[in-house]
Amino acid sequence: xxxxxxxxxxxxxxxxxxxxxxxxxxxxxxxxxxxxxxxxxxxxxxxxxxxxxxxxxxxxxxxxxxxxxxxxxxxxxxxxxxxxxxxxxxxxxxxxxxxxxxxxxxxxxxx
Length: 111
Hints:
With 111 residues, this protein is an all-beta fold. Helix content is 0%, strand content 54%. The protein contains no helices and eleven strands. The strands form two sheets. Strands 2, 4, 5, 6, 9, 10 and 11 form a seven-stranded mixed sheet that branches. Strands 1-3-8-7 form a four-stranded antiparallel sheet, with no helix packed on it. The chain starts with a strand and ends with a strand.
């Protein structure tokens, strides 16, 4: 049974930083990513990273967020800098293949 354990969410003031972590048990996954879902909005991709290091960022994350992974620890990270109130959402860890989702961690950015 694969488990994704997320940590690092919380409340931060605008302009601040947070680092999210997601540790996966079981197999090494080809793609590890972070999605987010704000109230009343659809879940959206924030950033992804392949096992080979190929990166993909949403436009809203470019220049502010950095995704990385440690394959030895089977863990993916999301460093979020210059946070804005519009970054407030539940952030979900995602891995594939097969697909698994984390339970979500709340990020709240106050103005």
